[in-house]
Design brief:
heterodimer, A: alpha/beta, seven-stranded parallel sheet, globular, B: alpha/beta, 8 helices, 7 strands, 46% helix, oxidoreductase (chain A), NAD(P)-bd_dom_sf (chain A), SDR_fam (chain A), SDR family oxidoreductase (chain A)
Chain lengths: 259, 267
């Protein structure tokens, strides 16, 4: 298994925690040289030392900062083969009746515009590879298919980036690039963020049971399980996969959620 | 370490096309592979396939529409290999033609092979998969080969559409069922686009015979032009996804569909 991504260079946005950190670890373990971004410098530098990667302090929605980030990737590693558009948040989100325009705009900027910028800059960099090769993976959510009432902006942005993945995949074909673009739709993943949410509730055990019960598998996904899918899509084993939306949710959306 | 070390896999329709490619990759990843098909065990096609697969593969003749054959295959897996971890329900046929011209006999035949075959194979091997699946990381894995034609409709492909759509939702139903019952079996569907297989060549030839094109190459060119990646898939490109779904890496994937179509249905 080790070596499946030998010689490839990967960029992971939002790589200091959760699925992003898990993916950065897994991509590095399979041989890729990994650049990852985030805003928590101390954690980022520690992870960079752990995986032999490179941390760059950058917020995904900072359009002006993208050229410098790509310059760093290409300047230090010479190429870009894999981009995991992972950075996203549901922080502060609310229902349609109560969501503030500030929250809406902030989440759109991170979850949607940030993904667009990631894909756009990744394609521009990958087009420079011999044969214009690359694999771009967008982290959507099962809530793209089953929107949540209390997370209107999050649900909307996660659905939007599935369309973005397909549009970019079709475009890459038209442009004769061999750049694949796919979206993954994870169910509830047991990240530090989810653990924190559970612990901050009045009855953490009950909340955990609700999260686990959403999936017929009756458990949350582990970060490593999503990282395994990311590594697979990044590899040449997925050479004919493009424009796909791939659910990884323990059968949550195979039927009706929570049933 | 190979990713399927110590696992036993059954691949139906394993002599040709996608089934053959999946069997070959499973062998390369360390699995013990049993392939089934309709050919006689002493036929040249079987000898050639087994020679190509190496020592880790066996052939058992079997018709996926036969309950008796499935009982025999299940008993063989139990006695020869002590169980089964991976079931690839791949065997299938196509059927094209204007809906008003399709015979009930032809309709029932495609449903028997493409749908009954998946149901019977699943039903026959669930006890083995449940037993064996508890002993491997990620559990046992059923991979049902549907098609992009199980997701989108296509003119004069209605019977094939219906059969592959049935496979898609059958897979989701059993995935939920196994998960809720805490049975260590995952079930997912593969949805190939246009793949260079004998089935596709035969289908193209029939379209040429009907006067839709002058020669099969013209149809290949049209399909390539309609695929964002700009080419048809090699059978081996369906094998990587199957290995992934069979492996421990896909431990949270069940009830999912993996579309491998070079972007065809993304348009």
């Amino acid at each position: 298994m080790a070596g499946r991504l030998d010689g490839k260079v990967a960029l992971v946005t939002g790589g200091t925690s959760g699925i992003g950190a898990g993916a950065a670890r897994r991509l590095a373990a399979e041989g890729a040289r990994v650049v990852f971004t985030g805003s928590k410098a101390e954690i980022g530098e520690a992870l960079a030392r752990e995986i032999g990667g490179r941390f760059v302090s950058h917020r995904v929605e900072d359009a002006a900062g993208w050229p410098a980030l790509i310059d760093t990737v290409l300047g230090e590693f010479g190429r870009l083969d894999i981009a995991f558009a992972n950075a996203g948040t549901e922080q502060g989100d609310a229902n349609i009746e109560q969501v503030s325009i500030e929250t809406w705009d902030r989440l759109i900027a991170i979850n949607q515009t940030g993904v667009m910028l990631t894909v756009q800059h990744a394609i521009r960099a990958m087009a420079r590879n011999a044969g214009a090769t690359g694999s771009i993976i967008i982290n959507s959510s099962m809530n793209a298919a089953r929107p949540l009432g209390n997370y209107v902006t999050y649900s909307t942005t996660k659905a939007a980036v599935v369309a973005l993945a397909k549009s970019a995949a079709v475009y890459c074909g038209q442009a004769k690039y061999r750049i694949r673009v796919n979206a993954i739709l994870p169910g509830v993943v047991e990240t530090d963020m989810i653990r924190h949410i559970m612990q901050s509730q009045e009855d953490p055990v009950a909340v955990r049971a609700i999260y686990e019960g959403m999936a017929p598998l009756n458990r949350m996904a582990q970060v490593d399980e999503v990282a395994g899918l990311v590594a697979y899509l990044a590899s040449d084993e997925a050479a004919f996969l493009s424009g796909a939306e791939i659910t990884i949710d323990g059968a949550t959306t195979a039927g009706m959620m929570g049933v | 370490m190979a990713r399927l070390d110590g696992r036993v896999a059954l691949v139906t329709g394993g002599l040709r096309g996608i089934g053959q490619a999946i069997a070959a990759r499973f062998c390369a990843e360390g699995a013990t592979v049993v392939i089934t098909d309709l050919d006689a065990p002493d036929s040249e096609a079987v000898a050639a396939a087994l020679a190509a697969l190496g020592g880790q593969a066996r052939y058992v003749a079997g018709n996926v529409t036969s309950e008796d054959d499935w009982a025999r295959i299940a008993a063989d897996l139990q006695s020869a290999h002590g169980g089964c971890h991976i079931l690839v329900n791949n065997a299938g046929i196509d059927l094209t033609g204007a809906v008003e011209t399709l015979s009930l006999e032809a309709w029932r035949r495609i449903m028997a092979i493409n749908v009954d075959g998946v149901f019977l194979g699943t039903r026959a091997l669930v006890p083995l998969l449940a037993e064996s699946g508890g002993a491997v990381a990620g559990g046992a894995s059923i991979i049902n080969v549907s098609s992009i034609m199980g997701i989108v409709g296509y003119s004069e492909v209605s019977a094939y559409n219906a059969s592959k759509g049935a496979v898609r939702l059958f897979t989701k139903g059993i995935a939920i069922e196994f998960a809720q019952k805490k049975m260590p079996i995952r079930a997912n569907s593969l949805h190939p686009g246009f793949v260079k297989t004998p089935l596709l060549s035969a289908g193209f030839q029939r379209w040429v015979d009907k006067g839709f094109a002058e020669k099969p190459e013209d149809l290949v060119g049209a399909m390539e032009a309609a695929t964002p990646i700009g080419r048809l898939a090699e059978p081996d490109e369906l094998a990587g996804p199957a290995v992934f779904l069979a492996s421990a890496d896909a431990s949270y994937m069940t009830g999912a569909e993996l579309v491998i179509d070079g972007g065809w249905t993304a348009q």
